[in-house]
Amino acid sequence: MALFKIKFDLQKRVKLAQGLWLMYWFAVIAGALVFAMGLFFKIELRKNSELMDSNESHFVPNLLIIVGLLACGINAFGGKICYDSLDTAKFARWKTAMKPFLISCLAFNALLILTALFCFMMRIPLMFTLAEGLKNSMKFYKDTDTPGRCYMKRTLDQMQMEFKCCGNNNYKDWFEIQWVSNRYLDFSAKEVKDRISSNVDGKYLMDAVPFSCCNPSSPRPCIQAQLTNNSAHYSYDHYTEDLNIWKRGCRDALVSYYGGMLNTIGILVILVTVLEVAVTVGLQYVNTAMSTLVNPEDPESESEGWILEKTVKETFTDIMAKAKAMRGSQVEDGEGGEGAVATVS
Amino acid sequence: MALLKIKFSFQRRVRLAQGLWLLSWAVMFSGLLVFSMGVFLKTELLRRSEVMHTTDIHVVPNLLIVVGLASMGINLCAGRICQDTMDVARFARWKNHFIPFFTVSLLVTSMLLVAMVLSYALQPNLEESLKIGLKNGIRFYKDTDTPGRCFQKQTIDRLQLEFKCCGNNNFRDWFEVQWINSRYLDFSNPEIRDRVRSNVDGRYLMDAVPFSCCNPGSPRPCIQENIRDNSAHINYDYQSETLNLFSQGCHQALVSYYMGLLNNSGPAVLSVFMAQMSVLLSLRYLQTAMSGVKDQENMEVETIGYLLEKGVKETFEEMKENLKKILSLNGGQVADEAAEATEGDAKASAS
């Protein structure tokens, strides 16, 4: 009892082949789109790679690129088969290759689903990478004279302005590190000396944030220094003032930026998977319809098409039996070999 | 004596029609390009409209949008006409529409030239408009509580951050205006009172700039206050410190940005103009060549194509005659009606 059997006459076969050829072209374009998205995501990750840890993994964009290229190749090949399927002579060439090709299509569809899953799950390792990376970057903010780290200040400033964020979790992170280089501190001033001597590690910590934390939408000029001291500024209450500097932490901002991108890419990959499953099913119908012509000489004869020759259960038991048979024959060969060795020795 | 006569055999006519069909599709896409250039230019001008004083420059993108759409329509028609040359009966339908079609197309194409000329001629106007707009923007920076001006601060801050510029001509423009709202000044502080009193207009001027002037590429944290006071900051020399604030003025930055856009669009518009003119000229040749073909059976005759039936001067005279006839026809009608009216009056008075 075949699965989803359909009767085909010549008209139906022709329509199926043409429709499937068109769908294969759409699938090629979809594969190219997946490739482009993978490339785009890779470039976006590279742009902010200085803020990420050394554990930064480019696994997902690389996978997307490979899957996109594979999709283009497989779909182009499938389209060629479709194009040839209406001519029985040409189709005969592909007959032996059809079964392995369909199985590889199934495997590819499984890979696509896995890719989509990875896209949605990448948020979590990204969060950890960014947390570590941002913490270290903020520590190196002041080292504009150290080769290899001299651009960290500019990178962080531009990132805070672009993503509208301040600090790692929030702006208070800047209070815990020294972000003014010692070169620009006047050590002869009493205030500076007091502050440093009162700190355990000898760091110059302030109640201040860099200018890149300032919010342009604030109605008053930006207050960067003595943020928690209400009396230092006129008409200022740091508990109610929420427009002065960015309240959001940069880790949150970056994770939601990349997370949004990943969600979109994941949804796109799922749509591509649906398309791929459809073309695989269509190709199976074309294959079976072309192979079961009632009268092989007459191209206008009727034929039948199905997805599986027997029902799902029977096909499964068949595959299991075949696997056992293969394993059994291997064991027999092994035993025969051993027996031969035993007799010789 | 026809202008620029060319002999056309059947083969030549067919080739002309085919080539013109392809050319009209290509020029249609360039018309689309002109349209999208106009849209892009308009959005860019609208985005910064708050720092522009006048909107005279908007005539350039408006013209480009209209002409882009019109040229797309013209080229579609030209393609249609080319397709109809194979069928003499269908081609005859177009006969009466050719003269108005050509007049409209020539008008539209000349608008392209006008747009290009304007994009160069209105540049001084744009510079002036930006200068006044920026000056006002800086003056009203502090008025975040005045309705109608409350977004000026945000606009100027975002502008300075995006274009990496400070002030109108340079950062010293900020020293001459009070950019802190009086609401945030503590007038019980003697220092502030002194500063305000020492100023002629009672303004609170400082040696400071807003945070948006800060250059992220500076190796040291941004120095925004007491900029000209070397002793206020350690290891600081105001004359030699170039990376602290953005050194470019926003007027210069905006002007060079918009000049770049307009100057780049000029040659593109000129090339579209030439392509469009070539389509129109070829179409004229095709029309005149096809007018020699009388019916479907004798399609293979050789015909003559020309641009103008008579010379330029004679065509001009003819046009003047036609115009005079139309005008005098109207005048003659008026005279006749006047004569009838007087006759009617005479009859009425007689009876």
UniProtKB/TrEMBL annotation, chain A:
Lineage, opening ranks: Eukaryota, Metazoa, Chordata, Craniata, Vertebrata
According to the UniProt record, one GO cellular component term is:
membrane
| Designated name of the protein | Peripherin-2
One of its Pfam families is Tetraspanin
Looking at the UniProt entry, the stretches that span the membrane are 21-43, 63-81, 101-124, 265-286
Query: Which keywords has UniProt assigned to this entry?
Result: Cell adhesion, Disulfide bond, Membrane, Transmembrane, Transmembrane helix
**How does this protein sit in the membrane?**
Multi-pass membrane protein
Q: Which organism is it from?
A: Coilia grayii
**Similarity comment text for this entry:** Belongs to the PRPH2/ROM1 family.
Specify whether Calcium is a keyword of the entry.
Answer: no
UniProtKB/TrEMBL annotation, chain B:
- According to the record, the segments passing through the membrane are 20-40, 60-78, 98-122
State the source organism's domain of life. Eukaryota
Q: Which InterPro entries match?
A: Peripherin/rom-1, Peripherin_LEL, Tetraspanin/Peripherin, Tetraspanin_EC2_sf
Q: Which SUPFAM superfamilies match?
A: Tetraspanin
Main subcellular localisation: membrane
> What keywords is this UniProt entry annotated with?
Membrane, Transmembrane, Transmembrane helix
What membrane topology term does the record carry? Answer: Multi-pass membrane protein
Q: Which GO terms describe its cellular component?
A: membrane
Location of this chain's protein in the cell? Membrane
> Which family is it part of?
Belongs to the PRPH2/ROM1 family.
From the Swiss-Prot or TrEMBL record, give the protein name.
RDS/peripherin-like protein xRDS35
Identify the species of origin.
Coilia grayii
